[in-house]
Write a structure and sequence with these properties.
26 helices; Glutamine Phosphoribosylpyrophosphate, subunit 1, domain 1; Rossmann fold; alpha+beta; six-stranded antiparallel β-sheet; 630 residues; 4 domains
Length: 630
């Protein structure tokens, strides 16, 4: 895990090395162990190294091939590098290091752009190909690792983080108002979508894409190299074989992600996903004590120590706890905003931030997490309604009735099901004309706290794809590709890298995801139980109380209560500040009205007003840090 940066001066001007060095320095938290540079005329590459695999100088970057015609800077890990290295050695390739980065170079030599489909891992890299006079850039299938760039007639500039790009004199600090609008208009569900960022002139390479930049004329081309195929259907002999195959894939994913030359641990929340990772990891490491890291709260309803304790008792893993408070939140909020680089509307970042910090303090540089399980396996509450719609749409009326009944029994939810299900079915069946009409209606119904002028100048774009026939699988696909996974991965990368910790997500192994999506919706939710496939596959591996729990927290925080009590003064200070009031985004009277309604506890239950208010606070802090400051 590292920080990468590079400049191609398309006007042929020589590289200003001091600019390249400043870009790399801004990413030293991503790679505090070493730094390196390669400059050749109008092209420069820079790297900040976090040593994980092959700690020797042989693995330093930028790295070149034997003929010094290929140079690479790489951020991430290729988990199957040992298998690929063996295959490439059999084809005549000679290696000088044990690093996965050198495997990428030789794989590119052997297979060209086709090398990407052979990698199992997370990556963002750039290869300078002097023979073909091009820069080949690529990002992993799910976008675990970031790749930002700026491209104009004079230069192509790239980096792992936006703050690195802002060190370049060609790049200005200007907000992308349309991204700001989407963030504010979507309340707490902002989607980190497409290739846009919150900064004008800065874009991101999309997940599962590669990009080629010609050194001759600066022409840039992009291409998707991987996607889930809806035609891929699992051949199910019997249900037990499905659970065995899922477990085998899950176990192998963890086996690959345990490869490390530095201490490794697990981020353990007590939930189904992270507990599954911990329990399987302990089975694989045999004889070594696995360290776990957990965030806890004094508020009982947010504290999961009773589940964490059961996992620790079963695995005999080492326990490391950190307690969080609202005072801690505001003490480090400036740092968090700086490292996140873009506004975020979830406070799950807060306990996650402290887990990463604790791991680093304990000398652990790699953490396995449960990231991706909810999106791939159907863990969110809303997916019940997508299952009901799926069954009704497929004519399985009896099954739909049984599932709705079980849902009511287990969840105790009296929410009217019919309205939600019909809305989902209508959206699935709608043609483009209907969707365009709904977008116009959405624009007209923008939140009242936004200024009318700001609303009139921007569009709340909703990006979804209808790729799968199954309504549930289709929404899970969009959860992986559009929202919320991209935003969660963004937060995870910045929180871990801020503390020089590498975060690995076994549930996002592409083989596992492909298999899950080859199965029908009945393997995601069944008998009123979410993530049925994972729960059934983990029988006998997880403590039963953890395996069968039906509540969900994730990295939850008591934000609503904090805002009304211990943080009210700080929240009001920010929203009443001169800088906030001068922003052109808000209708100040409506903001004040919504804030006061929330503080008095008069809002509608479940309307998530605290997330909306947090989005205002966070946007203001981001504007001060990245736009107002020079």
């Amino acid at each position: 895990m590292c920080g990468i940066a590079g400049i191609v001066n398309l006007d042929k001007a020589p590289i200003q090395k001091d600019v390249l060095e400043a870009m790399v320095r801004s990413e030293r938290h991503r790679g505090p162990d070493d730094s390196g540079y390669y400059v050749n005329g109008n092209v420069g590459l820079g790297h900040a190294r976090l040593s994980i695999i092959d700690l020797s100088k042989d693995a330093s970057q930028p790295m070149c091939n034997e003929g010094s015609r290929l140079f690479i800077v790489h951020n991430g890990e290729i988990y199957n590098y040992i298998e690929l290295r063996k295959e490439l050695a059999g084809l005549g390739h000679v290696f000088k290091s044990r690093s996965d980065t050198e495997v990428i170079l030789h794989a590119y030599e052997e297979w060209g752009e086709g090398c990407l489909t052979r990698f199992n891992g997370m990556w963002a890299f750039a290869i300078l190909d002097l023979n073909k006079r091009k820069l080949f850039c690529a990002r992993d299938r799910f976008g675990v690792k970031p790749f930002y760039y700026h491209h104009d007639n004079g230069a192509f500039v790239f980096a792992s983080e936006i703050k690195s790009l802002l060190c370049h004199p060609r790049i200005r600090r200007e907000p992308n108002d349309n991204a700001v609008y989407n963030y504010l208009a979507s309340g707490y569900g902002y989607m980190d979508i497409s290739d846009e960022t919150f900064f004008e002139g800065i874009r991101q390479l999309k997940p599962a894409h590669y990009m080629i930049v010609s050194l001759a004329d600066g022409r840039m081309t992009q291409k998707r190299y991987w996607d889930l195929d809806p035609r891929n259907k699992a051949r199910v002999i019997d249900e037990e074989s499905v659970y065995r195959k899922f477990y085998d894939l899950f176990e192998d994913s963890i086996r690959l992600r345990l490869r490390s030359d530095v201490p490794l641990g697990v981020s353990l929340s007590g939930g189904l996903d992270s507990s599954s990772v911990a329990c399987v990891a302990v089975r694989l490491i045999k004889g070594n004590t696995l360290q776990t890291f957990s965030s806890c709260f004094d508020e009982a309803e947010y504290d999961e120590r009773k589940y964490i304790a059961q996992v620790l008792d079963m695995t005999k893993a080492g326990a490391n706890f950190i307690f969080t408070s609202p005072e801690k939140l505001f003490d480090e909020l400036g740092q968090i905003v700086w490292h996140q680089e873009e506004p975020y509307s979830t406070l799950s970042i807060f306990p996650q931030w402290y887990v990463m910090k604790l791991a680093r303090e304990k000398g652990v540089k790699v953490l396995l997490t449960g990231q991706g399980g909810d999106e791939a396996l159907g863990g969110y509450h809303k997916y019940y309604f997508y299952l009901f719609a799926d069954l009704l749409y497929s004519g399985k009326f009896g099954e739909a009735g049984n599932e709705i009944k079980r849902y009511g029994e287990l969840q105790g939810d009296r929410t009217p099901v019919a309205g939600k299900v019909l809305k989902i079915m209508a959206s699935h069946l709608a043609g483009q004309g209907v969707k365009n009409m709904l977008k116009r209606v959405s624009r007209q119904a923008a939140p009242s706290y936004l200024s009318r002028e700001f609303v009139g100048q921007n569009t709340n774009r909703v990006f979804t794809e209808k790729r799968f026939g199954s309504i549930l699988n289709n929404d899970l696909y969009n959860a992986l590709k559009i929202s919320p996974l991209p935003s969660l991965l963004h937060i995870d990368d910045r929180s871990s890298m801020a503390h020089s910790v590498e975060s690995r997500a076994p549930l996002l192994d592409y083989r596992l995801i492909e298999y899950v999506f080859s199965l029908g919706p009945e393997y995601k939710i069944r008998d009123g139980i979410t993530k049925y496939l994972l729960r059934r596959s983990m029988k006998g591996v997880l403590p039963e109380d953890v395996r069968t729990r039906t509540d969900k927290m994730g990295f939850a925080t008591p934000l609503e209560r904090w805002f009304r009590t211990r943080l009210e003064g700080k929240v009001r200070d920010i929203i009443n500040s001169d800088s906030f009031r001068k922003r052109s985004y808000f209708d100040q009277a409506e903001v004040e009205k919504k804030l006061n309604t929330f503080m008095r506890g008069k809002g509608n239950p479940g309307d998530n007003s605290h997330f909306t208010i947090w989005s205002w606070v966070n946007l203001e802090l981001w504007m001060r840090k990245f736009i107002d400051e020079n």
